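Sanity check. The docking grid for D-malate depends on where the pocket ends up, so I'm generating a full predicted complex first rather than guessing from homology. Inputs follow.
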Amino acid sequence: MTSMTRLLTGTAAVLFLTLPAVAAEYRIAVGDGAGGTQEALGKAFVAALEEQSGGKMNGKLFVNGQLGDEQDTVTAAATGTLDFSILAINNITPFSPSVGTLTLPYVILSQEDAEKVTQGDVGQQMIEQTIEDAGVRIIGWGYSGFRVLTNSKKPVSTVADLQGLVIRVPKNEIMIETYKSWGISPTPMAWGETFAALQQKVVDGQDNPFMTVYAMKFDEVQKYITDLHYLFSIEPLIVSEALFTSLSDEEQAQVLAAGEAATKASSEFLRAEEAKIKEELVSRGMEITEPADDEQEFMKLATEAVWPQFYDQIGGKEVLDNVLTSLGREPA
Ligand code: MLT
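Predicted complex below; grid placement will be based on this.
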């Protein structure tokens, strides 16, 4: 062995011994653009995951549906071709009807309700059911606020005002039926196609939280907002169950702890940012209208027509009653 070979062999050995193990970098799909709840939840998760795992696990966010439309990311995670995804709960319901309880109109009436339901026993049951039905595990909950109605044509304050508008909804039966209860037949459409459809006036409007309207720059293509409260948008962080179960017990605990930290950060983010974002949208020229009569007409029509239609799908009326009573309300 020449002295040069000896030197190189020695250097390689030192390098081998001192190089840190390569960190696993997971791909995290984010349905919305930057600046909203989903990205904030994702950033908090990545930071907590790195901290929890001492740098051995890391994550990279792909915002704006770069890794696929929200519903498609559920399938991708279930089949193991995607690691994590952050998406609106209404885009999980088609794969796991039990979480539909959280997309029934006027069930969640405040951020506190959303936190209580998702972080309590009901949320735990939904996590288990979603693993079984959809092959994905909810490990964190994002809170985005109520889905407000936007449109490009006119202020809407009553159900009568809504007539004649073409409104995009997610491909979610409960939301489709909710608009039908208000007398219009909405247009189901994938999230990724929504901005272009609003821009090209294929549809007049859509609903999503203030945070999402802002993150998606809908103010560029929409003028009027109706401050509805029919659906509080919960935005889960999901992991492929195949990936999760391939991790060691210690890594699983780190992932779960990071998810919990992200949930907490999401609650704080919404409380700190929503009012500012609402003002920002107004300063960009959007007009906010309150629903007439304290929203009673919207609420009565939707709850009476929609809740009973979905009792079977969500696993029985008792599933809804359980959620309502856990929130201190009367059963349906
Ligand atoms: C949808 O409208 O499809 C979703 O709520 C979009 C989102 O995740 O923000």
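Relevant for the grid: Residues 31-32, 70, 87-88, 90-91, 170, 191, 208, 212, 233 surround D-malate (CB under 6 Å).
Also worth noting: The beta strands are 24-30, 57-62, 84-86, 136-151, 167-169, 187-188, 205-209, 224-226, 232-240, 287-289.
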